[in-house]
Design goal:
Blueprint (H helix, E strand, L loop, with lengths): L4 H56 L2 H20 L3 H8 L21 H12 L4 H22 L3 H19 E2 L2 E2 L2 H18 L7 H12 L16 H12 L3
Antiparallel strand pairs: 1-2
Helix pairs in contact: 2-3, 2-5, 2-6, 2-7, 3-4, 4-5, 6-7, 6-9, 7-8, 8-9
């Protein structure tokens, strides 16, 4: 075959085009690979930060705030069980003795914590025991949490302020676009609000009546029948605004 000058140019151009295309493909592939690796690294780092933040925050919280946090889970567990939803109540009532939440329990045994009470409740619920058997256990669990709160002491105003911050965090995680997206967090926010209301009734001061009133209104933002997973929630903005009304009266 006779190679003319035009044929030579065409072949050279095709080779150049092929080389450029392969180079672009290679660089693109490398770029995507690096981006994927970078994204994985960022996700891993973010996950580690979240774990470190959770451990650090719980590990550095005062014992009275940790007990208030634990109390919120028990409070909502009691409400859900008494609302006829033992399946939704179980995870909350098990919280005080869960292996996942050991950091919360540091140093509370000396304050009168009775883990066997909560284990008995969980076991009875798993076995489907009748309410007549479980209710006395729930009362004992409630009394034990109240005892822990009393023995832990602390500044009641600071504890309520902490609980309001936690309500905002949990409710914001549980509700989105007017719908419940994480029932556990929606329910926890109710529990923390209930604990704050009960604590407020022990405070004496110029604003104590207004504080109780503000917290009563906050609690009423969940359905009267209990914070069930299929409830229609109030907006996040309204709940946040009401927690601010609470803190203004501390």
């Amino acid at each position: 075959m006779k190679i003319t000058r035009n044929n030579f140019k065409q072949k050279t151009m095709r080779k150049s085009t092929l080389i450029i295309s392969l180079s672009i493909l290679f660089l693109t592939s490398c770029g995507e690979s690096k981006n994927q690796e970078h994204q994985k690294e960022e996700m891993h780092e973010e996950h580690q930060k979240e774990e470190m933040h959770e451990d650090h925050s719980m590990g550095t919280l005062s014992v009275e705030k940790r007990i208030a946090f634990m109390s919120g889970h028990v409070e909502v567990g009691l409400a859900l069980y008494r609302a006829g939803k033992p399946d939704q109540a179980a995870q909350h009532l098990m919280h005080p003795v869960s292996e996942m939440h050991q950091a919360e329990r540091a140093g509370i045994d000396s304050l009168g914590f009775k883990p066997e009470v909560f284990k008995s409740v969980s076991k009875a619920m798993d076995e489907g025991k009748p309410a007549s058997e479980i209710e006395p256990m729930l009362t004992e669990a409630e009394e034990n949490i109240t005892l822990l709160q009393k023995n832990a002491g602390g500044d009641l105003n600071e504890i309520i302020a902490f609980l309001m911050e936690t309500v905002v965090e949990e409710y914001g995680a549980g509700v989105r676009d007017g719908k419940i997206v994480e029932a556990g967090e929606y329910q926890d926010a109710f529990g923390f609000s209930m604990v704050a209301l009960k604590i407020s009734k022990r405070i004496e001061g110029d604003k104590s009546a207004q504080l109780v009133e503000a917290l009563t209104k906050l609690v009423s933002m969940w359905p009267e029948g209990g914070p069930l997973a299929d409830s229609t929630p109030e907006s996040v903005e309204d709940v946040v605004e009401q927690t601010q009304n609470v803190t203004q009266n501390l």
